[in-house]
């Protein structure tokens, strides 16, 4: 029996049966562009209803997300809606590059401070672009930052959670303290960025001293920095991170950080990745905790460091953060 080929309405993009992952009500498959031969990502966003106000809101959010065009943000190529089956289809560029997580925790690569500075200067530029367009990312994770090792060019994933119109609460070591109170904005992006930079420089997982979800929540509610922060020796990097980890009320916006000395190191292009077979990384046992409240049968989840809740954030009651 032949498998039927699934294509977009224009006939340009075709879906393969290669499942990548599933998260935030989205299922990701590999696909390809029949015009160029390039790989693409085929995303199916599933919702309970595509009627009336819900459909209008999703369409508005899709148009807003499609308008995000920046060289360091993966682009949406096309979208369409299947109202009968309650599916929104989204085709994006394929991230044919190594993830930053792969590079940071590989025993074969090292990165110097100038390379790290250049990478994150590009990410801050992308986050500033979102800020200047009155939006934010909300999902800056180290395994969704993609690096082309032959050019050093870097891209971040698109913020698909905006399409759903609500934010899923995930407790992980990326979680900004204000997320516990139902708040997520451009300053939250800054916190997540700081956590990723800390992990990139040290090659260790921030907040690894926390042995349980409650340990992590207590530290976040008290605005306590990860112990790893105090291992940073570079003065510019440490000052930059201290800005990222300020309490939400006084934390800078992405555009405020763009001219920080840590991001102003020489930007000349060079071999960004140095192979170093003798380099020994930390154990692959990441000592993580994971409770998947949203788990569905046979659902594949790439993020194994999070506690997922299906509820909307404003309904969660948490004590006031200590500033």
UniProtKB/TrEMBL annotation:
It comes from the Eukaryota. GO terms for molecular function: ATP binding; protein kinase activity. Transmembrane segments: none annotated. InterPro entries: Kinase-like_dom_sf, Prot_kinase_dom, WNK_Ser-Thr_kinase. Residues 1-263 form the Protein kinase domain. Pfam families: Pkinase (PF00069). SMART domains: S_TKc. This is Protein kinase domain-containing protein. It comes from Tritrichomonas foetus.
């Amino acid at each position: 029996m032949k498998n039927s080929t699934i294509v977009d309405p224009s006939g340009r993009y075709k879906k393969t049966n290669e499942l990548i992952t599933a998260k935030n009500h989205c299922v990701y498959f590999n696909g390809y562009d029949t015009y160029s031969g390039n790989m693409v990502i085929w995303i199916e966003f599933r919702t309970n209803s595509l009627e009336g106000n819900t459909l209008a809101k999703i369409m508005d959010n899709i148009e807003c997300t499609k308008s995000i065009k920046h060289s360091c943000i993966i682009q949406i190529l096309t979208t369409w809606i299947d109202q009968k089956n309650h599916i929104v289809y989204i085709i994006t560029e394929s991230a044919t590059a190594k993830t930053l997580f792969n590079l940071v925790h590989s025993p074969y690569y090292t990165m110097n401070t100038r390379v790290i500075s250049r990478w994150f200067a590009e990410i801050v530029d992308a986050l500033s672009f979102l800020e200047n367009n009155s939006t934010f990312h909300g999902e800056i994770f180290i395994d969704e930052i993609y690096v082309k090792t032959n050019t050093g060019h870097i891209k971040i994933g698109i913020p698909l959670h905006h399409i759903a119109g609500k934010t899923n609460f995930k407790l992980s070591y990326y979680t900004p303290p204000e997320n516990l109170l139902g708040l997520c904005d451009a300053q939250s992006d800054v916190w997540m960025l700081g956590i990723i930079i800390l992990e990139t420089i040290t090659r260790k997982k921030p907040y690894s001293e926390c042995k349980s979800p409650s340990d992590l929540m207590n530290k976040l509610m008290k605005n306590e920095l990860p112990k790893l922060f105090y291992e940073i020796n570079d003065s510019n990097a440490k000052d930059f991170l201290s800005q990222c980890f300020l309490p939400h009320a006084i934390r800078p916006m992405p555009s405020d950080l763009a001219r920080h000395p840590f991001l102003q190191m020489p930007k000349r292009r060079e071999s960004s990745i140095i192979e170093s077979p003798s380099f020994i990384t930390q154990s692959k046992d990441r000592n993580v905790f994971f409770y998947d409240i949203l788990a569905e049968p046979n659902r594949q989840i790439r993020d194994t460091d999070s506690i997922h809740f299906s509820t909307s954030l404003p309904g969660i009651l948490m004590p006031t953060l200590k500033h």
